[in-house]
Amino acid sequence: MQLRQTMGLLVVTASVSLLGIAGCTSQTDQTNSGSQTQQGESNTQTPKGKPDVIYVPTPDKVVAEMLQLANVSEDDVVYDLGSGDGRIPIMAAKRYGARGVGVEIDSGRIQQARENAREAGMAKSVKFIQQDLFKTDLSEATVVTLYLLPELNVKLRPKLLRELEPGTPIVSHSFDMGEWEPERVVKVGDSTVYLWTVPEKIPEHLR
Ligand SMILES: C[S@@+](CC[C@H](N)C(=O)[O-])C[C@H]1O[C@@H](n2cnc3c(N)ncnc32)[C@H](O)[C@@H]1O
Description:
Layout: H1 2-21, H2 27-30, H3 60-69, E1 77-81, H4 87-96, E2 99-104, H5 107-119, E3 126-130, E4 143-146, H6 150-163, E5 169-173, E6 184-188, E7 191-197
Parallel strand pairs: 1-2, 1-4, 2-3, 4-5
Antiparallel strand pairs: 5-7, 6-7
The protein binds S-adenosylmethionine (SAM).
Residues 51-53, 55-58, 80, 82-84, 87-88, 103-106, 109, 132-134, 147, 173 line the site of S-adenosylmethionine.
């Protein structure tokens, strides 16, 4: 038990460092949006498990680039895995008419995201599910967005490749996917955005 706690602490410490290195230094001002009302819909699930990575929001101009790179349209269902305050699904709905789904383990973030969706007039176009992203059924997603950590991307990779249809774009803010070479790498100021497309045939080394 003690070993697990120590490991947990190490993961959180590493997450803070990595996200800091990735240039997400806007945590302080942007998490101020976390002080928005936490009232609103009650959660349908009890919190289970701890976040694998801390909350750091993607700057709006990077969100815009991620959605553009994924070529999002009104026909899409955009899943943001670890959705924080909901800004990615909300922008996908507002700007492109897509359906947005945010998956988030933290109940406070879920409430904040729902409130933000209401404020943006997008409550009918987006939904937020309180769940561990590693347990989420991804089969209806036509676009997936990520802002996690390199090791989480790699851990998630087989699930993405297994559950998403060939041709589905995946975009990640800041972090790559190990041996899976990205199709495009785009710089937005200090940030980097990666794009992959799920192939028809999954190479052995990526499974
Ligand atoms: C770096 S933030 C990114 C937030 C948002 N996607 C964005 O780009 O602005 C990562 C988010 O993932 C959530 N998270 C961490 N581990 C998770 C897990 N296993 N399942 C679901 N959400 C998780 C955290 O609570 C946090 O809100």
